Amino acid sequence: MIPVVASIGGSDPSGGAGIQADLKTFGALGAYGCAVLTSLTAQSTQGVTGVHPVPAEFVEDQVRTLVADITLHATKIGMLGTATVAATVGALCRQGVLPQVVLDPVMVSTAGSRLLDRDAVDQVRGMLAHVALVTPNLAEAAVLLGLDPAEQAQDLATMKEHARRLQDLGARRVLLKGGHLDGDTSSDIWGDATGVRVLAGRRVRTRHTHGTGCSLSSAIVALRPRLPDWASAVVGAKEWLTGALAHADELRVGHGPGPVHHFWRQGAAGTGSTESSHVSWA
Ligand SMILES: Nc1ncnc2c1ncn2[C@@H]1O[C@H](COP(=O)(O)OP(=O)(O)OP(=O)(O)O)[C@@H](O)[C@H]1O
Ligand SMILES: [Mg+2]
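# adenosine-5'-triphosphate complex -> structure
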């Protein structure tokens, strides 16, 4: 079974994050990817210089046209951009138009640019109860909990506490990402109906971490349809992302923090043989 999955989010022309990273991730993990754009960004590995939102009605048009034809097995929601787009996509979640939704509540880019209107935060908070899984980083969890930036978690005990509080706000499952903490491990917190636990991973020493969050949530979406539960999809996605980080230095893309190597498992395949049984010179 080849899963058919969709990403709803913003464009990153540098190809390391956003829709572009999601489609690469889907392909790298053997899923067929669809994409609905919520905004264009002018962006490189060095930062975001502009954002051009898609009107909310047209985001809805894209979704409804897509699902009227194509049966999706799982959906990722990334950058929403504006409060109206967030309200529209939130309504689609509540109406059950989108299956198996993973919400990556993108608010601020790694380089610090704001990617979500202030008013939209309430809309995103309201979506928590209507998606299968939410994957905030430390700062996004603090914003969703209404905390000051200074109160964002800096250790695993506080991360567990924040994950539990997100569940209290209605989230069914939470993956609270700890990529921005220091240490030899890069541990995340998994929370579901059975409680919260630490998902430990090794920390890769690289500066090329552009798009790690996007790639992790889209990997979960790509894997979920072929695995028995969400926790297994999360473990498989983190395993794959750790490899993509470990191979990131092989890429030479841009002057800022570059992208991870989505196709590390495929290696240099595709550049080799020019022989073909389907095509020949006449
Ligand atoms: N250097 C690293 N080595 C290993 N894993 C990492 C590293 N940096 C981040 N991760 C992992 O990558 C995933 C994404 O975490 P992170 O906290 O960076 O998300 P994010 O802030 O949403 O990312 P982004 O900046 O792309 O939006 C998590 O599973 C985290 O543990
Ligand atoms: Mg992120």
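# post-check
Strands lie at 4-11, 32-44, 47-53, 74-77, 101-103, 133-134, 174-176, 188-192, 195-199.
The chain is about 35% helix and 20% strand.
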